[in-house]
Specification:
Blueprint: H1 5-9, H2 32-47, H3 57-69, H4 80-91, H5 98-102, E1 104-105, E2 108-109
Antiparallel strand pairs: 1-2
Length: about 110
């Protein structure tokens, strides 16, 4: 039996559908959060970075997810200092060299 992505998420999330031909919001069921995230992602990729290589796309995506998850909302008043502390806690004790970033070690590409 093949599992679709919806089947894999069904164990943790309730899947509901909104038919945009009829309405855009059904109680708490809507696509506004996802559309907001994609808008911010596209703006970040097109406006912030000079060039985005497909090889590094997942890193840019991770950065935008961090920014989105650590934004100030009505429910959580996160400050710039809070975001900085969260970033530092996530990178403390990790070493990320330029060679690893570029996929090269000693001038040769890592396969």
């Amino acid at each position: 039996m093949l599992l679709t992505p919806i089947d894999g998420l069904a164990q943790e999330f309730a899947h509901k559908v909104v038919d945009h031909a009829e309405q855009y919001v059904d109680g708490k069921v809507h696509t506004n959060g996802l559309e907001n995230f994609w808008s911010l992602l596209k703006r970040g990729l097109n406006g912030t970075y000079l060039s985005v290589e497909p090889f590094h796309l997942f890193r840019y995506l991770d950065e935008q997810v961090f920014h989105y998850n650590c934004r100030a909302t009505k429910e959580s008043n996160i400050t710039d200092a809070d975001r900085f502390n969260a970033a530092i806690l996530n990178i403390a004790g990790k070493r990320f060299t330029f060679a690893k970033l570029t996929g090269k070690a000693g001038g040769e590409a890592i396969t």
